[in-house]
Amino acid sequence: VKIFAPNIEQRDVVNHLKSSPTEEKRNVLVESARLARGNIQDLAELKASEFDAVIFPGGFGVAKNLCSWAVDGKNCTVNEHVSSTLQAFHSAKKPIGLCCISPVLAAKVFPGCEVTVGQDKNVDGRFPDAETASAIAELGCKHICKNVNESHVDKANKIVTTCAFMCKAPLHEIFDGIGTMVQEVLKLA
């Protein structure tokens, strides 16, 4: 297992204690290295031939830094290294795992693919970003409704997705869903 991140400036920096933006500037690779305890490489150096699969975590950083979904929605652009990494694994018929908001990356890069970001309606207030499913459909992809503890496998494209924090759920349910995604990716590898 190796961890990669793009060597780019973050779109913005948020003080999560106050839930407000700061004037500070940070680099995505440097911040990712902090989280990974330094064991990380520039995404530009990733070679799909050296790996059996790739998994992209989710989070607002994906929507702000790996693509511009947070600002542009379905009209977003995907970072060139993220897009080329996804395309390299897809071309090599190697599995791709995506959770939380990161399935929108596949929706932008692979028209016609199947993904899930949970439900397409805000069921019991648990899916406040349910409109993301409609945006995925507008991109020409199929959104598959799944519960937080489940994942969806697009067998034709070897793409495995789960909604994770796109659902307001207890952490153990989110953990279970991510676990099923990882298990399905490993089965396809």
TrEMBL record:
<dbReference type="InterPro" id="IPR029062">
    <property type="entry name" value="Class_I_gatase-like"/>
</dbReference>
<protein>
    <submittedName>
        <fullName>GAL3A protein</fullName>
    </submittedName>
</protein>
